[in-house]
Write a structure and sequence with these properties.
InterPro entries: DUF8059
Protein name: DUF8059 domain-containing protein
Structural class: mainly alpha
Number of strands: 0
Number of helices: 4
Number of domains: 1
Keywords: Membrane, Transmembrane, Transmembrane helix
Pfam families: DUF8059
Strand content: under 5%
Helix content: over 70%
Length: 138
């Protein structure tokens, strides 16, 4: 599952960079970049970086089983849902999609609250030096 988070993060950054290049072409042609395009670009960039971080945080906090699956699915859904509705809703006039922002935002919030739970419920141990082998990716 953490492989999915990392892959989604890197794919999101690639898409965000392609959109950024498109915005540059628009600007160099003397055209203004629409605010909805800028907003989606920024959200996808930040959420993609966080997806990569989550790909390392989930195993580091030893989130396993159903919680690991739920965190992964909810975060990836929010990562793509938030910029997606901005681009589709505002950019393509599909305004009926805009209220789903609460769904995608809620998915992100729930995934973060699960990670908070994992952080607070984890046993604290004092270790010095390396802890052995790095956790394997799934």
């Amino acid at each position: 599952m953490t492989k999915a988070l990392k892959a989604s993060g890197f794919l999101g950054l690639a898409v965000m960079m392609a959109v950024g290049l498109h915005q540059f072409v628009m600007l160099s042609g003397g055209n203004a970049v629409p605010p909805w395009m800028i907003g989606g670009h920024a959200h996808l960039g930040v959420l993609s970086i966080l997806a990569i971080v989550m790909g390392f945080a989930v195993p580091a906090l030893e989130v396993t089983g159903t919680l690991r699956t739920v965190v992964t699915i909810l975060f990836i859904a929010g990562q793509w849902g938030i910029p997606g509705i901005v681009w589709l809703g505002e950019g393509f006039g599909l305004l009926f999609l805009m209220p789903t922002g609460f769904l995608w935002g809620g998915a992100l919030i729930i995934s973060m609250l699960i990670m908070l739970y994992a952080t607070l419920s984890q046993e604290t141990t004092t270790q010095s030096g390396p802890t052995g082998t790095a956790p394997a990716d799934d």
